[in-house]
DNA sequence: ATATTGCAAATTGGATCCAAAAAACAGATG
DNA sequence: CATCTGTTTTTTGGATCCAATTTGCAATAT
């Protein structure tokens, strides 16, 4: 009898493992902006040579999560407030369009899943899994649009600003507000009102962007202020 | 006397050179879809080891220009008609927005440059530099918007579909039509009518997308037809 | 004390070598 | 003849080694 082997998912390559680990660490904010990523150190952490580490860093650079200078190594990218603002404008353009395409095609099953995730938001007001849930929620809404390129673009944008969003969410009332807005967007989807869902999404993103930029401007001004006082 | 060294632009790394060369070859269509990219062969072409070649291929994969399978190497990406269509929708969303932001900020100098490039279109109906000119034209129009992330996103999308566009342009009346539409967009910019310029751009891209997808569907159907006849 | 110069250490980019996997091929078997 | 099987060849992923460059630091000069 032929036993179909179960190895559907290939054993991941070393560089893949490292790439995913670093990517998650950066997105979640465990690696802070400006932090240097030494090839040798990372290689030892994973018990591999520097070669797969370099491949992972190359990919991260291509995604804009780290920036490297020749012979000087890689550091976690720091986004200026202008860049954060631009990325939110970008999301505010793409995501409503995505949702508009998705709503007419969403199955009841997809709506149920989205509602389930929305419920999880309410029950878990701590921010540990917030980013994860946020992704899942948006993914559940956008999935039916069946636009892989759009989805990838949206995810890339999310990756870049996620760590900033997380900081802001816990420091302000952002979490409660996001929960309410998600609820409204989901309700519009359930009512099959694509236009309204898109409009709400646009405002949701614009609002989140504004308050994040605001938060960054203030906290950076303060930091620079104390820094200059300290150095003076 | 202090002589400021002149090496403003660092000597490019080997992987950078290879990356740019392969990228251009793929975008221009010199490397055709599905073509295998052997590390060893490329390494010998550039007189380097496989290491910088692998870095270049990793970057190309991250940009979606090649796709690799573990232990099986890299091939130039083939886009389905659905993917081409989606990328044009994406461009049709981003580029008008970009232009709308750009028009109010365009200097007379920028307009002059754009007009100069538009003139070059007319004088050089051959398609050799068409893609190049097309990029330059759009870049001249979008530059003033001062949105690097949008620009990068647009360029990435252009890179993916450029080689298909080029084929279609020479096979149909696309070149003449594009020239006319560019003229109209530029006129709207010169009249500082951002809304109209954006609308024309959207239709320009939508139209180009439709006719390209149409062209691809037909030429691929024919190819598969002859192929199956040949193999039968 | 501060700026400058000349090593030494740390770090990266690339070359060479080796192991693992896939593809190509040849012979055996139904 | 098609198919299976074992072997050889090709090709990729990763380890180790070396060269080029930057960085840290000490000694010196101003």
TrEMBL record, chains A, B:
Keywords: DNA-binding, Transcription, Transcription regulation. It comes from the Bacteria. PROSITE patterns: HTH_GNTR. Residues 12-79 form the HTH gntR-type domain. InterPro entries: GntR_C (IPR011711), TF_FadR/GntR_C (IPR008920), Tscrpt_reg_HTH_GntR (IPR000524), WH-like_DNA-bd_sf (IPR036388), WH_DNA-bd_sf (IPR036390). One of its GO terms (molecular function) is DNA-binding transcription factor activity. The keyword Secreted does not apply. Gene3D superfamilies: GntR ligand-binding domain-like (1.20.120.530), Winged helix-like DNA-binding domain superfamily/Winged helix DNA-binding domain (1.10.10.10). Pfam families: FCD, GntR. PANTHER family: TRANSCRIPTIONAL REGULATOR, GNTR FAMILY (PTHR43537), TRANSCRIPTIONAL REGULATORY PROTEIN (PTHR43537:SF41). This is GntR family transcriptional regulator. It comes from Ancylobacter mangrovi.
């Amino acid at each position: 009898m032929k036993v179909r082997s179960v190895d559907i998912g290939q054993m991941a390559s070393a560089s893949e493992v490292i790439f995913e680990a670093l990517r998650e660490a950066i997105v979640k904010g465990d690696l802070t902006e400006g932090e240097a990523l030494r090839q040798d150190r990372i290689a030892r952490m994973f018990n591999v040579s520097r070669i797969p580490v370099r491949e992972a860093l190359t990919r991260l650079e291509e995604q804009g999560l780290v920036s490297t200078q020749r012979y000087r190594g890689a550091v976690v990218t720091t986004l200026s407030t202008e860049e954060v603002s631009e990325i939110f404008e970008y999301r505010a353009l793409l995501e409503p369009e995505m949702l508009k395409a998705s709503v007419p095609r969403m199955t009841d099953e997809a709506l149920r899943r989205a509602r389930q995730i929305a419920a999880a938001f309410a029950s878990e007001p701590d921010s540990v899994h917030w980013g994860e849930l946020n992704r899942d929620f948006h993914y559940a809404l956008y999935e039916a649009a069946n636009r892989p390129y759009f989805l990838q673009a949206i995810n890339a944008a999310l990756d870049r600003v996620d760590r900033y969003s997380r900081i802001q969410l816990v420091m302000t009332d952002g979490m409660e507000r996001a929960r309410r807005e998600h609820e409204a967007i989901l309700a519009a989807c359930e009512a099959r009102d694509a236009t309204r869902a898109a409009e709400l999404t646009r405002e949701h993103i614009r609002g989140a962007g504004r308050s994040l930029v605001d938060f960054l401007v203030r906290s950076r001004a303060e930091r620079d202020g104390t820094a200059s006082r300290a150095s003076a």
